[in-house]
Amino acid sequence: MTLRIFEALVGAGLSLLALAIWLWGIPAWVEPNDFVTVAPDLMPRVAVGAIGVLGALMCLHRLFLEPDRTTPAPIEPATIGLALIVLALFAVSVTLMLTVGFLVGGVFITGALTVFMGQRTWWAILLTAVCPPLLLWGFFEVLLGIPLP
Amino acid sequence: MIQTNFAGAVRRVATALTLGLLATPAFAEFPDKPITVLVGFGAGGGTDTLARLIAKEAEATLGQPIVIENIPGGGGVVAATKLMSAKPDGYTIGMAVTSTFSYAPLASATVKYDADTFDYLTSAAALQNAVVVGKDSPFNSWSDVAAAGKAGEKLSFGSSSPAVNLVMTYVSAQDGYDMKIVPTKGGAEIMKDVMGGHMDMGWSAGVHQRFGEDVKVLVAAGKDRLEASPDVPTFHELGYDVGDETYFLFFVPKGIPDDIFQALYDAFSQGAKNAEVVTMVEGTMGFPSRVLTPDELKQNVAESTAIYERLIAAAAAN
Amino acid sequence: MLDTVITAFSDALTVQTLVLIVAGVFIGQFFGAIPGLSALTAIAIAVPLTYYFTPVGALAFLVSINKGGTVGGSVSAILMNTPGTPEAAATAFDGHPLAKQGKGLKALKMALFSSVTGDTLSDFVLFAVSAPLALIAIRMGPTEMLAVIVFALTIIASLVGKSMFKGLIAAFLGLLLATVGLDPEGGTSRFIFGMPDLMDGLPISAVGIGVLAMAEVLRQLIVLRGAAGDSHLPLSSERPEDKRLSWAEYRACLRTILRSAAIGTGIGALPGIGSSAAAFIGYNAAIRASKHPETFGKGNIEGVAATESANSSVVGANFIPLLSLGIPGNVAAALILGAFIVHGIQPGPHLMQEQGRLVYAMFAAMVIANGTNLLLGYFGLRIFALAARAPALVVFPTIGLVCLTGAFLTSGTFGLPLVVGFAVIGYLMRALGFSFVTFIIGFVLGPSFELSFRQTVILADGDLGYLVDRPIAMVIFALSAFALSRTIWRHVSTSGKPVTP
Fold this sequence. Notes:
By secondary structure, chain A is mostly helical. Chain A has helices at residues 3-29, 42-65, 77-99, 102-116, 122-143.
């Protein structure tokens, strides 16, 4: 796929998403109010409407006016996979912080990320995993008395 | 919210296990660990300042540290919602204002509590709600405003919250005219707009006292007259059935054992009555010190709720 | 006059105050320099501590943190490309490319000097003409504010990047997310999905940390995977002229610095617009005035100077509405206002008569803090530059954790999932070439824009004459229309070339 087609698809996708929010999202999530001068949904509708129109224009522009027809689309399955892994790690870390505590979640995320980036020496992993969370925790919770999760 | 509770429990168990401190004495004197106060407004504001001043005194009485946690949002709603899921053991209490419990539950379906969800501990001070105009304004009393309104002039009013909108709509509707009620970011901005002549008048919760002669007070919008402007009548005296008293108050989840509740009440009400705190509150912040009992506060919230229920019904009928 | 100055300095030159100024500047620089934390976090933490200080000490401490933060904020933007706050985002445009060329220290020094220059100039404006400027601020009603915000938006529209469609889509997405929360007029809910935490809208700190800092961390984590034993930055260039900042170079940027300082001071004197907009407008003005606009974004040191001077000069100017009207211009000023009140000082028109001596002492403390900022910054920069060269597989996991911590400190438990969510959005924007700059500007200015728009509609009450009666607003609207048409014209006239509009 070329960049041109890819961006046309992105534009079309945004446009459809905006349409869906216009039709269902705003009525469901913006509470109407008869006692105000400017309706609460005016600004959301302006923003969503503009995104929809601009998305459609972008799609048309890329399909018919874009001179560059050769650059390939920036889709690399490997990168997408890695991004998903990093996100999953952060999600686990946040869950750990909220359920068990800051230190456990913190040790998990720094440790996991340094391994992810290619650290294989066990003592270096241990140092990177333990020191930053401990320092942050010591600084805020112990020194300043601000409760961390 | 249930998840948070569970989270707290797991965390406590984990902490206890790691520290090997499972053997807590069963009949420990309250309090045997720090108490947390969830303040419903941001750090540095009036509510926060009051909470910290009083907590400092209560800390000395109770002999345990008191941790202030600011949970701003929705005029105290976020902190109150957090407190709903707190254990009623006296170690987590909250601070907000009367309208957090009277107006907010009526206004939005997002608010999951109502006036009866909590017990009220004690209060610290009363807001000084007033309607003010700039010093160059042609209006010198509320009757001037009402006369202009009845004569067909459409006056603009800087409002600080939807609750104020309700009050002012009710007042103008009673005399049969309309006002342009303008939403703002609040206190200081309204003073700027009133002094700059961008709006005809505006609402103040006490901030006008800082501006001295640059603003004129037309009406006291609470239940009683203002401490700093004793000659200005209240809406009530002028024949409008509005005006609730708004207090800065401490609240707790329902179900706290009586002896713990009493200990908290003693500590915080003594703190609020402390001479230094009173000087600070009245002298510097400009709010009259009002330390109420739990029953008085319950009644205050109930009265305020009744007023807003009436105002909302009146607005819906128009 | 002279004895006022002497009294002021002797009030400010107590041991406690001096220690507090140095500590404050240090804390501000430190918090500012660590991606994910910011001076604002530090001020929020410090406000309750200051209840126990003397009034002068408390104010000097908070102001020093604020000043230190504006210098520190450039460090993470230049060295890591992870601006901790929107106001430093434009610093990264040219600062990070310079760091990549081994000229990190040079960029840091330029940021420091232009920051302190801008800050000092705006402080002097505050000392000298605070009262007349405050009168102008009073003249600015809702309609005038709307005009200024529209003008800021149109200026920033020229920063859309290569594709106008993508830049505008991002801006409107920012505006859309800015409507989350309770409706400003009626208090009804918008996109809060039953969560009270969203009632006051999406917290700007969590959004900023997510889109600007953490998204960049995600990108770097992925890009540098495998080769991460090395530093992500090249060794500092060996040529001495790449490390030093010569007087001639500073002199060459002086016009830019002064222009940005004027922009920042003007914007700071108006409450509610803020340093982020000032930074972007200053940056944009520097591009327009430059003979080589194409070199910006690739490591032009003028870009760093323009941004840092503009965002720092907001700090001093923000005190103009704060001291003379009691109106805080941004969150940091609001926190400092709280400290004023706790110490029995009521900012407002009568402050000078009632507390003149204290205000002058605070001015003296500001001057001392500026000097301290310069000194501490000059020596501190090397340490940060060294720390940033630690192996990437230590640096980026740590920053990831600090971002989470910073989000928690500013927004509570709710901030944690939020910052990860916005990191995803920021990452997608980078991957797909959408401008996160226009997004963040739309988000930051969105609430003020909507509020002043609705105020104007209500006040005008369907009468166009209301607008015509406001000459200041009309002039600014006309300027906006002119700026906008110029931007569009430029995009259209270049669209024949292979750059996509």
